[in-house]
Specification:
single chain; Rossmann fold; alpha/beta; Hypothetical Protein, Haloacid Dehalogenase-like Hydrolase, Chain: A, domain 2
Length: 281
């Protein structure tokens, strides 16, 4: 039976330090031979997908955490927050931006204030800490995001936003939810960074799970015939909506509780080995 195999990008299909493993083109070739369909399912906007991933020429894509669906030349879904709410939120944040670190993600561009720039640069610095100079250079070349304080360049009508990332305190987060509209949003992920709480907000009804259901309906594929590979908290909904959920060995602990099985890391050829074990390739 042919399957729809959905792959998260960062930490699943691709290693940030080393890129796409050499086994992946072989996986794609073998899947095609067995009539399986391959799709990407990422939190990244379409403009932030790395070049080595684009070169794989995968024609099925769920991007923006579920806000955008594309299949073989057809855009099935392209949703974003209401621009009026985003304009109100943006203006309110300009007045208190020193207190709240924020990034706004559209399909093609990310807008961030200085607080977000500082945090994201520090995250990247820590990721590169134990790398060789060659590995560090490869990591930098693979970055598709420009880390600059361009927050004031945002225009709500011109840049539809599908994801908001916030580093702030819980009381500040509650105020922001009220501005955007509590009924319109859901948390894709949350966590901690230093003394900040981290909140990743997406539009209600636009998570990876909803997108998989819509894609399956469009492709006329039963969801029990889908296999999802992921590694992060925002892949939980993807696992819930798929027939089988496979977590990478280095996955988020919460995601592991929803996984049907665990495979090796990207650079250990986890996707290839798991599909082999299941006799799918």
């Amino acid at each position: 039976m042919a399957k729809l195999i959905l792959l998260d990008i960062d930490g699943t299909l691709r290693d940030e330090r080393f890129g796409v493993p050499e086994s992946i083109p072989k996986v794609l070739k073998l899947c095609k031979k067995r009539h399986h369909k391959i799709g990407l399912c990422t939190g990244r906007g379409i403009g932030m997908i790395q070049d080595d991933v684009k070169k794989l020429n995968i024609e099925t894509l769920i991007a923006g955490g579920g806000s955008y669906i594309f299949h073989e030349g057809v855009v099935i879904k392209d949703e974003s927050f209401d621009w009026k709410n985003m304009d109100k939120f943006w203006n309110s944040l300009l007045m208190i931006e020193t207190k709240i670190a924020c990034s706004l993600e559209s399909n093609e561009k990310i807008f961030m204030n200085q607080g977000a720039v500082d945090i994201l640069n520090e995250m990247n610095r820590r990721k590169c800490k134990n790398l060789t100079n060659e590995q560090r250079q490869f990591f930098k070349q693979g970055q598709t995001i420009i880390y600059e304080n361009n927050f004031k360049q945002f225009h709500a009508r011109l840049h539809p936003i599908h994801k908001i990332c916030l580093w702030c305190q819980p009381d500040e987060f509650q105020k922001i939810k009220n501005i955007i509209g509590v009924q319109n949003i859901v948390l894709a992920q949350k966590g901690n960074w230093g003394h900040y709480h981290y909140y990743e907000i997406i539009k209600k009804g636009s998570n990876k799970g909803n997108a998989i259901e819509q894609l399956c309906e469009y492709m006329e594929i039963d969801r029990k015939d889908t296999i999802a590979f992921g590694d992060g908290k925002n892949d939980i909904d993807m696992f819930k909506s798929s027939g089988i959920g496979i977590a990478m060995r280095n996955s988020d602990a919460e995601l592991l509780t929803f996984a049907d099985s665990v495979c090796e890391t990207p650079m250990e050829d986890g996707i290839y080995k798991e599909l082999k074990r299941r006799s799918l390739i």
